Amino acid sequence: MKNLTKRQEEILDLIKTHILDFGFPPTRADIAKTLGFKSPNAAEQHLRAIEKKGFIKILSGASRGIVLSDSDCDEIPVIGLVAAGGPILAQENIEKTIPRSRNLFSNDIDYYLRVKGDSMVDVGIYEEDLIGVSKSKDFKVGNIVVARINDEVTVKTLIEMSQTKVVLRPENQNYKDIIVNPETDELVIEGSCVALVRESI
Amino acid sequence: MKNLTKRQEEILDLIKTHILDFGFPPTRADIAKTLGFKSPNAAEQHLRAIEKKGFIKILSGASRGIVLSDSDCDEIPVIGLVAAGGPILAQENIEKTIPRSRNLFSNDIDYYLRVKGDSMVDVGIYEEDLIGVSKSKDFKVGNIVVARINDEVTVKTLIEMSQTKVVLRPENQNYKDIIVNPETDELVIEGSCVALVRESI
DNA sequence: CAATATACTGTATATAATTACAGTAATTAT
DNA sequence: ATAATTACTGTAATTATATACAGTATATTG
Asked: Is the CB of A63 under 7 A from strand C?
């Protein structure tokens, strides 16, 4: 799918905003008025261009007949197994997506990560649970974080964090603390857990 | 808010379905065609009646200008503390509601129940968690259920169920099984847990 | 360098859609 | 008993909207 131009993106945003605000898409005249066009035809031609690039579908003969394509209704990815090496949000890691509008949580969730293993059972995080991850950088010691250590992604409690020592604790007596020296090992805190979802009890 | 007639309810449903299917509300003509009216004015008058009862707002002069009122986007109640005696879904028990459209789960969730106490920590259900409850009657032994025993509502695992003996097990070594004789004690299985949500980790 | 894409103005028209007016008939509330 | 509500048909006017056609100008691609 080709990229939209800046102006086209503006128009797509306007359509989404209109739907959010009113519950239905704008007319050509609405678009023209909002963006200051003097002709509704300017909007028309933008819409055709955006349709050509696959971001919307125009239903001919229907008023306000603009249908957003699935790809752009802003979905939250659910990450299954993370392939070693690549970025977490790489396409091949995405198990499915959830429309952002269905997001139950007020928190800022950038993606859901499916939990593998039992290293966090003592805080009630089980295998196959989905944890909501926020990429925000304001995590603190004590938070449960998503960490990447040398290409391996793991969910642990952040216990200590300094220039030379980071301690990640599995919440399960059978496991030992992971102690990393960020100067010798590659360590990235990808985000912190802000929610948990268990789909099948 | 007054109740809708059967026909009006049909029309409101049609509007919701149309929005779901197309992304925008139907026209009067659409409604008339779908329901077999020979005049778009039949639809018009129904819409006015539904608006009068507060379920929709009609934006005059705008095509497809039908806005659903908040109240009818079908909300899932979140039940906090259950007052002894009354029904679970009584108004005073409802802590808040969540739009059904925001429901992440495919399961049939009739309400969310906020967990009190630590009797289920061994299966990862913690105080303040929300469990999604389905009122469906096809729960089985082994399921986690919401039970009401003599006016007290509790979440436990259903271990055994016969005419004269029902065993409910707290999933916490510090608690003992609850054994109830449905013939002498009042016992209602309100539903079974089909999901779990933890909003703050 | 020509073709295509982008980003518009300006006009016009067919059709889509709202909405008013005039009825009919059955049911329900006062 | 009478008024109001419900549930429509039928017609028609007005307005809202999509959309075609004719331009202008600049930027980008092959």
From this structure: yes
| Percent above pLDDT 90 for chain B | 48
Chain A residues in contact with B24 by the CB 8 A cut-off are 19, 23-25, 64-66
Query: Which residues are CB-neighbours of B29 under 8 A, at least 6 positions away?
Result: B40, B43
User: CA of B184, closest CA in chain A: separation in Å?
Assistant: 30
pLDDT number for residue A152? 86
Residues of A in Cβ contact (< 8 Å) with B198: 124, 195-197
Q: Is the dihedral of CA B43, B45, B49, B52 positive or negative?
A: positive
Cβ neighbours of A124 (radius 10 Å): 21
Note whether A22 and A30 are within 8 A (CB). no
Rounded to two decimals, what is the model's pTM?
0.61
Question: What does the pLDDT average to over A126-145?
Answer: 88
Read off the pLDDT of residues B44-63 as tens digits, 9 standing for 90 and up.
999 999 999 888 999 999 99
Chain A residue at shortest CA distance from B109: A199
Mean pLDDT estimate for chain B: 86
- Determine the distance in angstroms separating the CA of A146 from the nearest CA of chain B, rounded to an integer: 13
CB A104 within 8 A of CB B200: no
Say if A124 is an interface residue toward chain B (CB within 8 Å): yes
Question: Burial, A2: exposed, middle or buried (Cβ in 10 Å; 0-12, 13-18, 19+)?
Answer: exposed
Percent of chain A with pLDDT over 70: 89
Whether B124 and A63 lie within 8 Å, measured CB to CB: no
Angstrom distances, CA of residue B59 to CA of A54, B45, B48, B62, B63? 31, 15, 11, 6, 8
